[in-house]
Amino acid sequence: MSSDLPTGPEEANEALFSRFSINQQTIKQWSLPELVDGCAKAGVRGVGLWRAPVQEYGVAAAARLVRDAGLTVTSLCRGGFFTALDSKDRADALVDNRAAIEEAAALGTETLVLVSGGLPAGSRDLHGARERVADALGELAPYAADAGVRLALEPLHPMYAADRCVVSTLAQALALAERFPAEQVGVVVDTYHLWWDDTIGSQIGRAGAGGRIAAFQLADWVTPLPAGVLLGRGQLGDGAVNLRWFREQVDAAGYRGPVEVEIFNPELWERPGAEVLAEVAERFARHVMHAR
Amino acid sequence: MSSDLPTGPEEANEALFSRFSINQQTIKQWSLPELVDGCAKAGVRGVGLWRAPVQEYGVAAAARLVRDAGLTVTSLCRGGFFTALDSKDRADALVDNRAAIEEAAALGTETLVLVSGGLPAGSRDLHGARERVADALGELAPYAADAGVRLALEPLHPMYAADRCVVSTLAQALALAERFPAEQVGVVVDTYHLWWDDTIGSQIGRAGAGGRIAAFQLADWVTPLPAGVLLGRGQLGDGAVNLRWFREQVDAAGYRGPVEVEIFNPELWERPGAEVLAEVAERFARHVMHAR
């Protein structure tokens, strides 16, 4: 056993899972009460939630359910989609994002994940779309700060640049976030989106030095990608990503927050939720946390 | 009509298409003789070829066929796949790449396109794989130079990093190429792979200043991506890429070579080749060459 791990099995487990969080989408076959119950049974204390299932259950009721179970909501997904050209659409997006901020506050999480949005239909102006993201952050960041919520800008893999998110690298996300105070706008470091980038180590250092790492999310990269490339994320350890290296980089950059596992994979959704959660936890211990 | 275009229709056509080249894969329903014949009928003078159909026809016979038709071979695709860990596999790759260099020389093209290769099965070491690409370039570059062929390292979209090409950005490709003389190792600028990158303008400038642009290839980015993400390239003008901006950047960087259209798209392959070639030429004039 490595010398930097606690020696007793219970302490080891405690240290391993103190930062672990399961994102709701990873086990989306579970209803919100099933998720809360399943986490309690498995000793999992952090959950990342999504707006649609929370709204369906009722925001106040969801907040109560999670709080009563002693769970921490590590993030809420997602606001964003700021890139419309039409002014009515942009105003609607701001209204929706203010609602997302209020939902995050009600759930007791500081972290609202933002997916910026893709190119408007027929547009080829990536730069303009990125500036509209900055404009929206300027509108929303003070409002979020007043609610005790930080906007967490998530760079998505470049394969989503046209239709989902014009912010494709951590460097880009940081350049946008750094226009605002660190306590108002941070970034999400997600291994699935960023693993291929040869500058990612130095960009994680930059993010950490600026106090900008608002969330750290994990999924593995597996091929072949499915049509639409949305639901092909891999279980931890099944793919190409050096997950432990990422966790060490984020730790070395000073991040001490939750480590959230967010996998979109229909194969996981077909299995019993408790079995998936146990597998994720085992993979997390083996591929993310344990020293080599 | 814009003042920087010739005024007569024939001269305009001449100027528009003097650098145009059609990559064989764009119209792969055509055999090599059909391609040569179709290009002659359409007034197209440049073709990018692939090794498999050339080998099938016979390298010497293909070289003669193309030369007799007055066509220029603008590039040969492809060498590469340098990332194996097994020494026997790596030695085999070098043998195969020397053959590719000889085929390029026989066809009279200076440009051999290299797709570097992905991660070996089970490996998560992107850095190591990239260094093995550098090692192979070191082995092959002098051999290629002796044959009058330049190695053209192609960065592929990050969605191919695991299974096809560990070189994902133009900056990375340039950092590798710059270890060698510019006349031995250049880079490919392909809009499909690089369009999302917010640093691409400055990297094209860097590539041009160093005399490193060995090829300029065009395809558009359309969504949704198909399963496997290999055959989803869009016809020029159908997607998100500002093709004219790219051509202007490459021109401004001092590149004066061929502009090759390389689209992998099964819908194009189902149509008559001459119809596809005419459509590509019309799109090229409209979306790539004409001033705004």
Question: Topology of this protein?
Answer:
2 copies of one chain form a homodimer.
Chain A: H1 9-17, E1 20-23, H2 32-42, E2 46-50, H3 51-57, H4 59-68, E3 72-80, H5 87-107, E4 111-115, H6 126-146, E5 150-153, H7 170-177, E6 185-190, H8 191-194, H9 200-209, E7 213-218, E8 220-221, E9 233-234, H10 243-252, E10 259-261, H11 266-269, H12 273-289
Parallel strand pairs in A: 1-2, 1-10, 2-3, 3-4, 4-5, 5-6, 6-7, 7-10
Antiparallel strand pairs in A: 8-9
Helix pairs in contact in A: 2-12, 5-6, 9-10
Keywords (chains A, B): Isomerase
Protein name (chains A, B): Xylose isomerase
GO molecular function (chains A, B): isomerase activity
Provide the descriptors you would attach to this structure in a database record.
homodimer, 292 residues, alpha/beta, TIM Barrel, two-stranded antiparallel sheet, 12 helices, 45% helix, globular
In short:
The structure is a homodimer of 292-residue chains. Chain A is an alpha/beta fold. Chain A contains twelve helices and ten strands.
Question: Which structural category do the helix and sheet elements of chain A fall into?
Answer: alpha/beta
- Under the CATH scheme, which architecture of chain A would be assigned? Alpha-Beta Barrel
Give the largest chain-chain interface (CB within 8 Å).
A-B, 34 and 33 residues
Q: Calculate the mean pLDDT score of chain A and round it.
A: 95
Q: How much of the sequence of chain A is in beta strands?
A: 15-25%
CATH class of chain A: Alpha Beta
Oligomer: homodimer
| CATH homologous superfamily identity of chain A | Divalent-metal-dependent TIM barrel enzymes
